[in-house]
Structures
1.
Amino acid sequence: KKICVIGLGYIGLPTASMLANHGYYVVGVDVDRERIRRIKNGNLNIKEPGLKTLVSGAINSGNLKVKTTPENADAYIVCVPTPVKWENNSPKCNLSYIYSAIESIKPYLRDRNLIIIESTVPPKTTERIYRYLNDGRKIYMAYCPERVLPGKILKELVENDRIIGGVNKESAELAREIYSSFVDGNIYLTDSTTAEMVKLMENTYRDVNIALANEFAKICEEINVNVWEAIDLANKHPRVNILNPGPGVGGHCISVDPWFIVEISKNAKLIRCARELNNSMPYYVCDLVFKELKRREIENPKVAIFGVAYKGNVEDTRESPGKNIIECLTSKGVSVSIYDPYVKTFEYPLESLKECVTKGDVILVITDHEDFKNFKEEEIREIYDLMRNKIVIDTRNILKHDLWRKVGFYVKLLGDGK
Ligand code: SAJ
């Protein structure tokens, strides 16, 4: 059987390669010529453990071909981005990439073809597209949300349970046949609108949980409690699982998807509030910086930013809270230098560790990279000697604070009022 995967990003490329390695003939399609060229050369712009080997294996086997236009196939899987756009202060899912993907496959569609959408979309989108396409042709359609965690994509693609929502039972069954070729987890069938809502609920649950942790962090600062210790102890309860506070929620999923629920329902009050709270965290972090600078009357301050990836151990900077923090600091006349051992390109210049901390006043840790945990005492001492003022603000509780304090740093931890 032949499958056409539209969109070769974080989800489409691993999925296409996986299917090609499991007996399907796969055509991977992306409108970006440069991306196609890179995939062919094995020079991927996505850094994900194991991905390069998987892709080159699929291409060398002859089962995966990549190009810029679709072809006739038995099934089409759409994995294009669905960002949020703002219209009159209201969030709206930008479905333009989905629509152009659908238009691009429309001329090739034949009776009994299956179309699967994996991109995150507002409820009822799949049904609407199904109605639009079913103009006399017998098309099958299903919504099968991706659920993989960046950094663990290959493992989770195989191991996670999957939800498949068909516009009818036959569609769901046909989609199940495809996914069961490589998924070891359970596969659950439902209707397409339920599956769309399930996807949004998963990411919204996480966003609201993080917002709660962030609110706890602010409150703990007021009452001289360490929120990290408090959360750790609360989580000893068998039915409590509070996530970690931090500088805000980034990435292209959790910081975006809850808006698609806000878009469709006035009842989404808690969801909107959580989103706004998480979006406000970068400014809360900047206030912590301003407070330290003011307290010491530091003139022409320089802040050394540690980490601009949206989360630890990835190179992705999309929707990173770091961007808002940098903008806010620089708009108030604070100069910033940026160090991130994982990130290769960013809107602002990246520097080496030494350059970044030289003559700095504050180290502001924004990302929980493993590397930051592993600084040795000699390295911390070297950093100490290069800096003008010796302040550290850790928004992730990732540094070994005892070691930094021992060297002589003043360490402020987000959410620690003690
Ligand atoms: N974060 C915190 N505190 C925490 C956990 C995360 O502040 O305790 C922050 C992270 O630093 C990051 C953001 O939240 O900025 C999101 O990171 P994440 O690791 O929670 O999630 P993503 O966006 O990398 O991937 C999520 C996953 N969804 C869930 O876990 C429910 C993944 O399984 C989805 O496939 C993915 O969204 C997606 O594509 O929808």
Note: The first helix runs from residue 12 to 20.
2.
Amino acid sequence: MSSAKRILLIIGGGIAAYKCLELIRRLRERGHSVRAVMTSAAQQFVTPLSVGALTNERVLTNLFDLDDEREIGHIRLARDNDLIVVAPGTADLIAKMAGGHADDLATAVLLATDKPVLLAPAMNPAMWAHPATRRNVAQLKADGIRIIGPASGEMAERGEAGVGRLVEVPELLAAIEGIFESSERRQQRGVLEGRHVIVTSGPTHEPIDPIRYLANRSSGKQGFELAAAAADLGARVTLVTGPVSLPEPAGVDIVRIKTAAEMLEAVKAALPADVAVFAAAVADWRVEGIKTEKIKKTELPGAPTLTLSENPDILKIIAQPGPDRPRLVIGFAAETQNVLDYAKSKLKSKRADWIVANNVSPASGVMGGENNTVHLISAKGVESWPEMSKAKVARRIMERAAEELHTKRTAAE
Ligand code: CTP
């Protein structure tokens, strides 16, 4: 059995709502605390009074109940728990979840939560079989919602039978405990245990001759922090870095390269990987016709002219669809203006799953500094994070990457 957890139970408006009373008792017997939200339809089947008596907490029913907003607020309600259980999940509630509605407390909480959600559907078999419900359920699965049931059997309506019954309480309990136990196991093992993470970092140096090179101001700090965070969370890490002077993070395989071409080869050699994070400030151009001997002023009539050619875009190459593509490809967008617009277009043009965008204009102090203010851009939209240390940014990115891998796997199951 898992340790004591906080469960938010969202009770939908179905005849099976009465089973929630038993569920609450069993969960509390196991030491878990339960807070309940009831839709208005649910209150037609069981009363908030009886639910509240069993949870020993006030039952929440109304999004616009000012007292609730002052005391907890729906955003906190959505996050101050370890798991949200939706039971019975009616066809209407499922449709609202799939469509991202938020017009009552239950749906607003479900839209605002960052916690796992377990949905136990219950409805008439014809409603369950309807293409609209099939579509909605497929969407919820793709969104990472865990679904248990429905079971088959007799319906409350006379003469109706088929798939649509709420699963029985012991099954619901087992599913809930299963979620807690697997998340505890993952935490103990490190959420990235068994994963391979590749990180590129630092600048690249593009030689002009054996002495001189083209470079940029990247310190490599963010990339090194990413590698350290991934290793800390249990991953096997390959850090491919350009020339920097930073201490090596513990438990990381470090591959030191100088040029963009070498970085590309090193990344390819490190594949396959579950996650690849491209934090390097790769030089966009290299010098053509690199001299093998030092260029002497005396041998030239004036200043030399450098001819540049474009370097391979490592992120773009690795993010191409194919068997070797890491499951999660994360790029960085270092910009000095129009940060979000440029970053969004990089998400598309490079086919990355996420872009971490930051403002690196000199006034930001990011280049070489300890802190970073980033936006996480994905197909889902833009998340702007507050300013924090590069170590914290790294930790958060890696934790999110672990969640994403887990969600993708759960959805695929
Ligand atoms: N990147 C890469 N290989 C390159 C250039 C960039 O892997 N040759 C990666 C970087 O590591 C980063 C992302 O692509 O994750 C965006 O890099 P950035 O320098 O911001 O963008 P560029 O593609 O170089 O575009 P621009 O310089 O025009 O902003």
Note: The pocket of cytidine-5'-triphosphate is lined by residues 200, 260, 278, 280, 282, 284, 311, 313-315, 331-334, 346 (CB under 6 Å).
